[in-house]
Amino acid sequence: MFVGAVFFPLLGATIAGFLGRWIGDRAAQWATVVCMVLAAVCGVAAFLQVAFGEADRVIEIADWIDVGGLNVVWALRYDTLSAVMVGMVTFISTLIHLYSVGYMAHDDSKPRFFAYLSFFTFMMLMLVTADNLLQLFFGWEGVGVASYLLIGYYYEKESANRAAMKAFIVNRVGDFFFMLGLALTFWTFGSIGFDEIFAGVPSAVDKTIGGMPVLEVIGVLLFLGACGKSAQMGLHTWLPDAMEGPTPVSALIHAATMVTAGVFLMARMSPLLELAPTALAIVTIVGASTAFFAATIGCVQNDIKRIIAYSTCSQLGYMFFAVGVGAYQGAIFHLFTHAFFKALLFLSAGSVIHAMSDEQDIRKMGGIWKKIPVTYAVMWIGSLALAGVPFFAGYYSKDFVLEAAFAAHSGTGMYAFVAGCVAAFLTAFYSWRLLILVFHGAPRADHHTMEHVHESPWVMLVPLLVLATGAIFAGAVFAPYFIGHGWEEFWRESIANGPNNHIMHAVHDVPGWVPILPTILGLSGIGLAVVMYVAAPGLPARMAAAMPGLYRFVLNKWYFDELYDRIFVRPLRRLAQLLWRTGDAKIIDGMPNGVASLAVDVARGTVRMQTGRVANYAFTMIIGLVFFISVFLIGIVR
How far apart are CA 237 and CA 19, in angstroms? Predict the structure, then answer.
């Protein structure tokens, strides 16, 4: 069961990838779906047995590395944290695989797509079941490769190729810091196994490197690595461009894999972070800033998938500042509930795109809710959960994160609380802006597109209905275990139970207005969207005209791409051109080519002497003979 949850997706990927051409598209599709169903059954069963049956275990697969003092065993670590992630990843991924059968029905290379999708899932499962940092890094890089393949799936499109390269390169920046953190961890503890690291943390408190506490440095380096995968402010620029991949890919990246890896890493390393307060403060500030900044951008985007993508970026900010204030359990709880409603929103967006003949601009939609009522209903449910409206899944997890930030009673905690509250208001606003512009009002698409608007097939709708059920009930069902009074028995030793865990108790003692404020802000955001896009639909254009600088600033995503283009891309391109034209063309190619040209000139001169006339050859021989006799006579005279 524990092995099957991880390796069934690899089996499906292998069948589709290597045998798809022989067994056919349909067989390849359903082979991966069946393997994912088996993985989900195993994953959910493992979650129930480990989390509720207190059956933690480490399953050794094989010896992997034994070099010098480094010994690494390939093993599957199942504690509550891993079990929660395995259950969530396998379940959500199975629904996405099933949805993809309908969504990719007209694609020309289905086996390749489903092989990539299952490979992506396998790598994420390897990451979350890792028993050491190196094995985790293997899965970490694996999801990076899989995301590159899937974002650039439509490789004939230049924009898809650029997006895939951008995601790969930006993630390499974060991975560089991860590798430094991994190396420093081995230098500090003499091991990269989690049990050995956590056992050695107390004795490493006073250890320094370069005059800085080594635990702080490790914490910051690992967090910078997490920033790349989880698209935190500064290393987030790849995330919206990743929408170039098929919609099921977007759902998988944003809900179950890839972006959740950084949050998982922070929770896994919580025993170390507990003794690195500066690192936690940095995590809090960056996470809170990301939550706010991404929410502002989501308010003005017009691509349906990009709006939801920036929503993911914002929600990840919540998870990180929950880690920063010490509410690791709350961060994972929000990750868990977010998986349901974010997968629901992306797949619902895919259903809209499918109905609208591949149109993604919400300005060209409208008036379609009666034609796709099931999609409309489930997208409402997803938006209610995202906005934190009582009593949907997001209400329990996001509100808990905000209460934890307030309960921290620190400067960074209050900054996170304020930024998170503003982000909650903006989240509700852009969610209803999307709903209103997509489904309501007069149709803005052309007549031909509107004639062909239709509901998705049941193979796509069934996963949406299951996810909608999760978006409604996942928070209420699991809140008592994840963050309720029984959280210590549920999580046990899988997440740190250190000094900062007073936050988990203090949350229940915050003032009465704190739990109510996010709901008030969320409902206010919904009300503002209704006013601006229903009651006074001309108001957004007038506001944009009144504040053109601010509007352009937000519309252009705070100019991060332009800034990076100016300070990184252009200088590096100029350097590359200099190295090419001078170093490569003139020096590396120039010197050998110059010698070759000289040889050619000499050969051509010699060729001219070969006239084919006997008189010329006899004259040349006589000249040579006279030369040698002259040299000989001069030698005798001397």
Answer: 36
How many other C-beta atoms are found inside a 10 Å radius of the C-beta of residue 611? 10
Number of H helices, E strands in the chain: 29, 4
State in Å, rounded, how far the first CA of the chain is from the last one: 101
- Helix residue ranges, H only, 391-455: 393-407, 411-439, 447-451
Backbone angles phi, psi at 72, to 5 degrees: -125, 125
565-616 pLDDT per residue, tens: 999 989 999 998 888 888 777 777 766 666 777 777 777 777 776 777 777 7
Per-residue pLDDT tens digits for 496-518: 866 556 788 888 889 999 999 99
- List the structure tokens of 104: 């990719």
Q: Which residues pair with 70 in a beta bridge?
A: 67
Q: Which helix (H) or strand (E) holds 101?
A: helix 80-103
Q: What is the DSSP string of 514-553?
A: HHHHHHHHHHHHHHHHHIIIII-TTHHHHHHHHSHHHHHH
3-state secondary structure of 395: helix
CA-CA distance, 334 to 207, in Å (whole number)? Answer: 34
Number of C-beta neighbours around residue 50 at 10 A = 24
Residues 6+ apart with CB under 8 A from 121: 9, 36, 39, 89, 90, 93, 252, 256, 257
Lookup: tokens for 312: 């993911």
Q: Rounded to an integer, what distance in angstroms lies between the CA atom of residue 393 and that of residue 376?
A: 18
Q: What is the pTM of this model?
A: 0.91
Reading the block at residue 457, the tokens are 């097939």
φ, ψ of residue 77 in degrees (nearest 5): -95, 120
